[in-house]
From TrEMBL:
The keyword Translocase does not apply. Its cofactor is pyridoxal 5'-phosphate. Belongs to the class-I pyridoxal-phosphate-dependent aminotransferase family. InterPro entries: Aminotransferase_I/II_large, AspAT/PAT-like, PyrdxlP-dep_Trfase, PyrdxlP-dep_Trfase_major, PyrdxlP-dep_Trfase_small. This is Pyridoxal phosphate-dependent aminotransferase.
Amino acid sequence: MSQYAARVEEMDISGIREVFEAAGEDAINLGLGQPDFPTPEHAREAAVSAIRDGMGDSYTSNKGIPELREAISDRYATDNGQDIPPENIIATAGASEAIHVAIEAHVEPGDEVLCPDPGFLAYEQLVLLAGGEPKRVELRDDLTLDPAAVENAITDNTSLFIVNSPANPTGAVQSKQDMAEFARIADEHEVICLSDEVYEKIVFDGEHHSPAEFASSDRVIQASACSKTYSMTGWRLGWVAASSERIERMLRVHQYVQACASAPSQYAAEAALTGPQEPVREMVSAFEERRDVLLDGLEDIGLDTPVPKGAFYAMPHVPAGWTQKMLDNDVIVVPGEAFGPSGKGQARISYATSTAELKEALEVMRTVTNSL
């Protein structure tokens, strides 16, 4: 008998972690997947008040406190025009758990799950954990996911496909037309569309749309979080929204792997969602300015880069050996192939750092590029 589960043996340690472990202590870190801004003060204070008042000492309901789920429901109604009742929402330990419970509740062993390539590292690993088979779908030249490519990849064994917009690692934002097509594909082919919307508020060009806005059935599941929008990655607070029938199945997974999201984090999230949104606007404006600094610098160096319209990542095309040589010169960037084989020849650069550090890193990029 094997000592370890076969599905776990198929999983890999994150390639990003390997890059970080190889870096020097004083390296400029352009590999981070989290904002470099503080959590809004009113969200912090809400958590402190909850702790002082004894509301953080016990389990909440499995789905989360009503006030938080009402705040999420209101946000969907106000921002997306979606009618999602609070009872159709589960507060989770970040969007990662939301994606995990959605996959566990809908993927049978041997099922195919379509994942963007390059795409967020966790997708394929969570599919493997559920006993499914990840199937990669290459992106367009502008790094968006082509609905036609998704539709062509669907077989009788496909149970689910994943859409991520704005996207990690690319910064790409899907168009309204694409999202409507993803909804149609889910409806017509009777497969699940899992929409990872954790960067939904960090959009510079165009607008965020969800496939759920266009669905005529309940086959779109939405996952999101406070992590990126409110710089709350350490608070581990996200949610999943779906039909009551699908929420019931995901709740069965959630209640045994997590019980409930952290109580203090739930109160902080409620305050973040219902309180002043100026910190979000300031953060997004700063990211857009940094993006433009980075893109101008990359263009000047001669590195072709699809223009990211959201999140805080760019993926320039780079020469062979570039990411390693950057690391040797104390600048951390992540090789594109860490996000899937189609990312080979590119690198993910996070601009969730100061403009001064970005400019310093660009000078290193210039030197490294000229040396190759």
